[in-house]
Fold this sequence. Notes:
By secondary structure, the chain is an alpha+beta fold. It has two helices and five strands.
Amino acid sequence: MAKTLFEKIWERHVVSQLPGGNTLLYIDRHLIHEVTSPQAFEGLILARKHGAEMGGTFTVRKVASGVGVERIFPIYSPSIDKIEVVKKSRARRSKLYYVRTKAVRDIRRKMKSVTIDANEKESK
């Protein structure tokens, strides 16, 4: 049975084989003052939505300067330059939205320990 053009593209696409939990590097081209420049975004895949259809997206999260940043990328976009898998990992869920609250808890713990250490130094 002959495959459609869409099926051929989907089989080659990196995101089609990636479950949630992997870390990837997404590089796309941005047009700034009539010059295209690559922009990279590296982070953890939280979710893939709308499957293999043309409107499919995936959500990537990273922590930059202590602040969580999430971006939603279209799977099929002409501006995509490259998608690379940086680190493979195994997750038992397909949607990893719990990572948001887990990261916040870890940051709060670190902040508590930093403030306690700072108070101890001031009292000495």
